[in-house]
Amino acid sequence: MTLDSYFMKEAIKEAEKSLAEGGIPIGAVLVKDNEIISRGHNRLIQNDSVLLHAEMDALENAGRLDYEDYIKCTLYTTLSPCPMCSGAVILYNIPRVVIGENKTLMGAENLLKCNDVEVVVLNDMKCRDLFLEFACNNPEVWDGELEKVGNSTEVK
User: Fold this and answer.
1) Distances from the Cα of 38 to the Cα of 29, 133, 139, angstroms
2) Percent of the chain with pLDDT over 70
3) Which positions ≥6 away from 142 have C-beta within 8 Å?
4) Phi, psi dihedral angles at 151 (to 5 degrees)
């Protein structure tokens, strides 16, 4: 098992945790020097939050790091990060993002790439299946989230 696969499995555990809490199953871990320094999962529903995507939760849980720390990090996320989360990656100079799956939902990967962030997509079907099962079983919840951001895109 590669390190990327190992850390993605940890991000999937976070997605499963969100699902168990009644939330959207998206998870993330922040890794520095091959060690998880923070974990996060989507908490939009659980916390009635507009900001706590999995990536933002992981960054928040890491606390205030120094520039030298951020530039040694990789963010692992089960689905392609949105513009907000991608912007945070750029803001904090995180040089690498590993995405579990990006066919279901395409985030702002081009924004990352245009800002010299290395983007790796694993095409992990567990990430896809977790999200699709949630979206199919909870269409009113997912459609409501899309409406809040003015996006009527259907899940593929």
Assistant:
1) 6, 26, 30
2) 90
3) 24, 134, 135, 155
4) -120, 120
Strand partners, 76: 29, 98
Question: The tokens of 23 are what?
Answer: 């939330």
Cβ within 8 Å of residue 102, ≥6 positions away: 79, 80, 109, 121
What pLDDT score was predicted for residue 28?
98
Catalytic residue among 10, 21, 35, 55: 55
Task: Kindly report which listed range (49-58, 77-86, 118-127, 136-145) carries the lowest average pLDDT score.
Answer: 136-145
Of residues 148 and 133, more confidence is placed in 133
**pLDDT level of residue 138 (50, 70, 90 thresholds):** confident
Structure tokens at 135: 């979206």
Instruction: Please list, residue by residue across 32-58, b when 16 or more beta carbons sit within 10 angstroms of its beta carbon and e when fewer do.
Output: beeebbbbbbbbbbeeeeeebbbbbbb
Contact 74, 119 (CB under 8 A): no
Measured in whole angstroms, how far is the alpha carbon of residue 114 from the centre of its chain? 19
Sign of CA dihedral 41, 47, 52, 53: positive
Is 147 marked active-site? no
